[in-house]
Design brief:
The termini are far apart. The protein is mainly α and 123 residues long. 7% of the residues are buried.
């Protein structure tokens, strides 16, 4: 009988430990969800997909390239005009990268602006 009580005490202690851990994990999850809710729109507002970056830097100048350029321009304006809220360190780090991509896109000579014209290999 004492063995059963000991085993029961051990199980109760394990259950208590698991409940504490579960509570801690739930709190961490809630905190992450709050942060995601706050930062999600900002991240969406300032990020470009790898597909857009690749299209702008390596793709042919066509309608899809123009749409990608419009997306880059809109996001850059959003960052520059402060429409993204606070000017955080992340935004300051992002600006040079966006400007670099914009500069790379603007290197393309005007004669290359016809649809389906391949981009120069040095761009």
């Amino acid at each position: 009988m004492t063995s059963f009580q000991t085993d029961l005490s051990n199980v109760a202690a394990e259950i208590e430990t698991l409940q504490t851990r579960s509570s801690s994990l739930n709190k961490r999850l809630e905190n992450r969800q709050k942060v995601e809710k706050l930062l999600g729109p900002l991240v969406e507002q300032i990020t470009l997909s790898p597909k857009v970056v690749q299209k702008l830097s390596e793709g042919s100048i066509d309608e899809a390239w123009m749409k990608s350029l419009d997306e880059l321009s809109a996001k850059m304006k959003s960052v520059e005009n402060g429409q993204t809220g606070d000017h955080s360190k992340a935004l300051e780090d992002l600006k040079p990268l966006m400007e670099n991509l914009s500069d790379k896109v603007s290197i393309c000579p005007p004669s290359m602006e016809k649809a389906n014209t391949p981009r120069p290999s040095n761009v």
